[in-house]
Design a protein that fits this description.
Blueprint lengths: L8 H7 L2 E4 L3 H4 E5 L7 E5 L10 H24 L3 E4 L5 H11 L4 E3 L12 E4 L7 E4 L13 E8 L3 H13 L4 E9 L3 H4 L1 H9 L2 E13 L4 H15 L10 E5 L17 H21 L6 E6 L5 H13 L3 E6 L18 E5 L10 E5 L8 E7 L5 H4 L4 H6 L4 E7 L38 E2 L2 E2 L6 E2 L1 H9 L9 E2 L6 H32 L5 E5 L3 H16 L5 E4 L1 E2 L3 E2 L1 H10 L5 E7 L4 H15 L10 E5 L7 E4 L35 E2 L11 H9 L2 H16 L8 H12 L8 E3 L1 H10 L2 E7 L7 H10 L3 E4 L6 E5 L18
Parallel strand pairs: 4-5, 4-8, 8-9, 9-10, 11-17, 12-13, 12-16, 16-17, 18-23, 19-29, 20-21, 22-23, 22-26, 26-27, 27-28, 31-32
Antiparallel strand pairs: 1-10, 2-3, 6-7, 14-15, 24-25, 30-33, 31-33
Organism: Streptomyces phaeofaciens
Keywords: Glycosyltransferase, Transferase
Pfam families: PELOTA_1, PRTase_2, StiP, TRSP
């Protein structure tokens, strides 16, 4: 009711329609008109949260109450075996709420969005809808298999055709003894009322119906033609709700739990429901912080099939803010808007589709938002819909900003199921590889930040004195990956330098993180699988993952794998990745390039892996934060500057050691190994480093956009000038081994921390980027030589032809 006027009055008077039924029917329903060749009128629910903004508690409460009624109908035993199926797009959220009321039922909704790699488990047609094809894409096909009741949920039950189509299709594939149909309103005509009984007899199953209200629409003769003429006349004269945007648009990161589905498109289990319940308070609190304190009315606006997550966020927000909170969603359904108290759709915002729909682009709509006097609108979309079209001048955000002073964008990661199994590839031996290691059991990173495709060697003594390792490596008696250096413990002065470097360069690093991540998403994959090269690449991979979540709401998978110079990448890690992800989506990540040795190593290893029968499709090009050696096309910057994570070892890399590859520890079916230095937790700055950089994301966002635009238009073909410089330096200084020349700030730091350094070459005039290098060099007695034409900020030279006799008793390097 609008000020005592029923919101179906306008249509009823002009078309002679009559709504007959329960006393609550006119409270639950209004009427509108649409351009549809099969049915001109539209029943507009006031309690569904689709076209009419409503209190989220009211919306959830109606669905939940229906679920409780179904539970009572079935009894505890059958209710425990029930599965709930909702209809896209209108009833996806309602079905979720019914499943909540049932309590223990898994939930699935049909979808009109194709999802690559997910096989169809069924489909059906909706006869009166403007978009008819429904797909069923459960992550686990067994969800639809079983003899327990199937509960089918739609917002209205009119002709019954949709339900009949569904039951016939599913019963043929997955027969059951019982079906329950649930609707907010049962609006069948007398002619349609007996069709469910006929179907039950036809398939030999029981079919029940539960509805919150019931009635019929009495239609006079010729109503369809009259309705179409009325729609056409008013469309010609209707003024659009669009106008120039003046409101502010702000993005808020929800912190959506990793791996939690965004809805029921692929199935939503009671376990998922429990995870969501636990995460809702913190996510809603983040939204509450973004809403102006003076706001009186706030709308949480969902997105087409994404109804339940926005609804639950809105319901939680309703408890946190003083403002009146309302909830509705955008829709594909075109409806005539008439600004009249007796009409259900008072206003209409039109904008282009922004989720690459399977049926192609087209108009989308938000009803009763314009003129709703909302002080803030929280738009909740999934990451598949967080596209350029969403942010375009005519896109949804701009249209909302024209009608409210404050728009908050919250992006829920689009859930794409991992395959339950992968077929064995020709020539590839099946290997039962373990799941990735995760913190806090392995590493100090939170478990969602990275999965380590490594085996834990924490209980094995692998450390050896630096000088002993260097002699063994250079004499050919051992490979550098067969042992570990003793972990360098920074002095107080060095720790101060690290913190100062972080304070100075955090924004610079944040921009480089944004640039490389945006480049990856634009050129490599819209939903990349980040695979960092442990361990220097791991902090960068985590930061890229955080940027993708901050900017796009993406919840990207991130793993760390081992690559060893001269031995290649861990082939078992590649097998695991190919079994769980499309190799074409995998993007290898490293911290920086020096002379490009690892770039070449990776390319050779991928080629060898494929030649041996491994999965094809891995792209060997590395994405790096900094590419001073001009070795790759995908980078955040080509400047050689101090990346503070290079200053430390495990204490900035999740307390994980360098990776280890030794025949007596790593078998043919094992991941490479590494150690977790739990005992260094007191000195750990791993998460603090990430937080300091991520805190600068918002301030560099505009700079990132400009840099990426320029970069994508630039010829980024690698010149390998770094490799040429290394070869020249190797000969000029009589080293004759490029492996002992480590160019760039990061590699020079590594030389000082882990090898026996001979001397440091520094570009003349290099400033604060080398403060930590100078301090380390002073502590180890290593000379720093300024060079005028150095292409890097600095280069570290490892002591050539090293033996322990080449140093003094204190282990300091001496000149040769």
């Amino acid at each position: 009711m609008n000020n005592g006027v029923w919101s179906g009055t306008w249509v009823a008077e002009r078309l002679g329609l009559e709504l007959v039924g329960d006393d609550t029917l006119t409270q639950m329903l209004g009427l509108a008109l649409r351009r549809n060749p099969k049915r001109a009128h539209l029943l507009v629910s006031n309690v569904l949260g689709k076209h009419v903004p409503q209190s989220p508690s009211v919306v959830h409460g109606h669905g939940f109450a229906l679920g409780r009624r179904v539970r009572e109908l079935l009894g505890a035993e059958e209710a425990a075996e029930a599965v709930v199926l909702g209809y896209a797009e209108t009833a996806t959220g309602l079905g979720h709420c019914v499943a909540d009321g049932l309590g223990t039922a898994p939930y699935l909704h049909s979808t009109r969005r194709l999802v690559a790699g997910v096989p169809q488990a069924g489909g059906f047609e909706e006869s009166h809808s403007h978009a008819t094809s429904h797909l069923l894409l459960p992550e686990d096909p067994a969800l639809l298999v079983g003899d327990g009741p199937l509960v089918l949920v739609d917002d209205e039950f009119s002709t019954g055709n949709t339900v009949l189509n569904t039951i016939r299709d599913l019963h043929e594939r997955y027969p059951r003894r019982r079906y329950v149909i649930v609707a907010l309103v049962d609006m069948r005509s007398a002619a349609d009322a007996g069709r469910l009984d006929e179907l039950a007899r036809e398939i030999g199953a029981r079919v029940d119906l539960v509805a919150a209200a019931s009635g019929t629409v009495r239609l006079p003769e010729g109503v369809l033609a009259k309705g179409q003429e009325l729609v056409a006349r008013h469309e010609r004269t209707a003024a659009p709700a669009s106008r120039t945007a003046h409101g502010r648009v702000e993005r808020v990161g929800l912190g959506w739990p990793q791996g939690l589905p965004d809805g029921g498109r692929h199935g939503f289990t009671p376990r998922h429901r429990a995870r969501l319940e636990g995460a809702l308070p913190e996510m809603a609190a983040r939204l509450a912080e973004a809403i102006p304190e003076a706001a009186r009315r706030v709308l949480v606006l969902g997105f087409e099939e994404l109804m339940y997550a926005p609804l639950r966020l809105a319901r939680e927000l309703e408890q946190l803010v003083a403002a009146e909170v309302r909830y509705s969603t955008t829709t594909r359904s075109p409806v005539l808007a008439v600004d009249d108290p007796g009409y259900a759709i008072r206003s209409r915002i039109v904008f282009p589709s922004h989720d690459d729909p399977a049926d192609g682009p087209g108009e989308r709509y938000a009803y009763n938002v314009a003129g709703g006097d909302f002080d803030a609108v929280v738009a909740v979309v999934d990451s598949a819909a967080d596209t350029a079209a969403l942010h375009a001048p005519d896109g949804l955000l701009a249209q909302l900003a024209a009608h409210t002073p404050h728009v908050v964008l919250a992006v829920v990661p689009s859930y794409v199921p991992e395959p339950l199994y992968a077929p064995a590839l020709s020539g590839e031996r099946p290997a039962m590889l373990p799941d990735p290691l995760r913190g806090p059991a392995f590493s100090s990173y939170p478990p969602e930040e990275v999965g380590w495709l490594l085996q834990d060697l924490s209980d094995v003594t692998l450390e050896a004195p630096t000088e002993e390792r260097e002699e063994a490596i250079q004499s050919g008696g051992a490979h550098y990956a067969e042992s570990l250096p003793v972990e360098y413990q920074p002095s107080a002065q060095y720790q101060e330098l690290f913190q100062a470097a972080l304070d100075t360069s955090a924004a610079r690093i944040a921009q480089a993180v944004g640039v490389v991540t945006e480049t990856v998403i634009a050129e490599r994959s819209p939903r990349p699988v980040l695979v960092s090269l442990a361990r220097a690449g791991t902090p960068v991979g985590v930061l890229m993952r955080r940027w993708a979540q901050f900017r796009h709401g993406l919840d990207l998978p991130h793993y760390a794998v081992s690559i060893v110079r001269g031995r290649g990448i861990d082939a078992n890690a590649l097998r695991w990745l190919a079994a769980h992800h499309d190799p074409r989506d995998v993007v290898f990540v490293d911290g920086w390039t020096g002379k490009g040795a690892i770039t070449r190593e990776l390319a050779a290893a991928i080629e060898e892996f494929e030649a041996a029968g491994g999965a094809a499709g891995f792209d060997a090009e590395i994405a790096v934060l900094a590419d001073p050696g001009s070795c790759v096309r995908t980078y955040g910057t080509r400047e050689d500057f101090l990346i503070p994570s290079a200053c430390l070892n495990s204490t900035v890399s999740g307390l994980i050691s360098r990776t280890v590859l030794r025949a007596d520890l790593v078998g043919p079916d094992d991941f490479h190994g590494a150690k977790f230095y739990r005992e260094l937790a007191g000195a750990d700055v791993s998460v603090a480093f990430l937080d300091a950089v991520a805190a600068r994301f918002a301030e560099v966002a505009d700079a990132v956009d400009g840099a990426v635009k320029d970069l994508l238009a630039t010829d980024r073909t690698p010149t390998w000038e770094g490799w040429a410089a290394v070869e020249r330096i190797s000969e000029e200084y009589g080293i004759h081994d490029v492996n002992l020349v480590k160019p760039g700030v990061g590699e020079t730091t590594r030389v000082l921390l882990r090898r026996v350094p001979w001397k440091i070459l520094a570009r003349a005039g290099a400033g604060a980027d080398l403060d930590h290098v100078r301090l380390l060099a002073e502590q180890r007695g290593v000379p720093v030589e300024e060079v005028g034409d150095l292409p890097y900020t600095c280069v570290g030279l490892i002591h050539p032809q090293y033996t322990r006799g080449a140093t003094g008793a204190d282990g300091k390097a001496v000149a040769v």
